[in-house]
Amino acid sequence: MDYIRAFVVGGLICVIGQLLMDGTKLTPAHVLVLFVTAGVILTALGIYEPIAEFGGAGATVPLPGFGYALAKGAIKATKAKGVLGAFTGGVQATAGGVAAAILFGYLMSVIFTPKTKK
Fold first, then answer.
1. Which of 28, 84, 94, 102 has the greatest number of C-beta atoms within 10 Å?
2. What confidence score (pLDDT) does residue 115 get?
3. Are 12 and 61 in contact (CB under 8 A)?
4. How many other CB atoms are found less than 10 A from the CB of residue 87?
5. How many CA atoms lie within 13 A of 17 on its CB side?
6. How far apart are CA 18 and CA 97, in angstroms?
């Protein structure tokens, strides 16, 4: 059942993104920023936590999940360190995922020969 919930939640997030790109003049970069910002705002309002608990990886892996992780880290660090935690908490909470993305992206560029589109 966990897989089905993750598929449904992740699929709905993707459908929203596709509808935004097809129905508006938003570029993929605009949608990326919108989704990360929406994840932060929904976390601050207490709305994204139940979505993440229900959808699991379907809610935490897509872009709103990155905003969720940023906000959750900032909130946790702010409670522990005060105002300074608001600036450092999000970075600390997401550092592992960002480092992994950079490492694996670099490894793929070394293993495979990148080509430009014509």
1. 94
2. 77
3. no
4. 12
5. 20
6. 24
91 within domain boundaries: yes
CB 14 within 8 A of CB 7: no
pLDDT in tens, 78-116: 999 999 999 999 999 999 989 999 999 999 989 998 777
> Could you tell me the two tokens for 109?
């560029």
Sign (positive/negative) of CA torsion 24, 52, 57, 29? positive
Which pLDDT score, from 0 to 100, does residue 113 have?
82
Residue 27 lies in a domain: yes
Number of domains in the chain: 1
* 48, part of any domain: yes
CA distance 32 to 96: 20
Quick check: is 116 in a domain?
A: no
Indicate the length of the chain as a whole number.
118
Q: How do residues 45-70 score in pLDDT, each as one tens digit?
A: 999 999 999 999 999 988 999 999 99
The span from the CA of 104 to the CA of 13, in Å, is 25
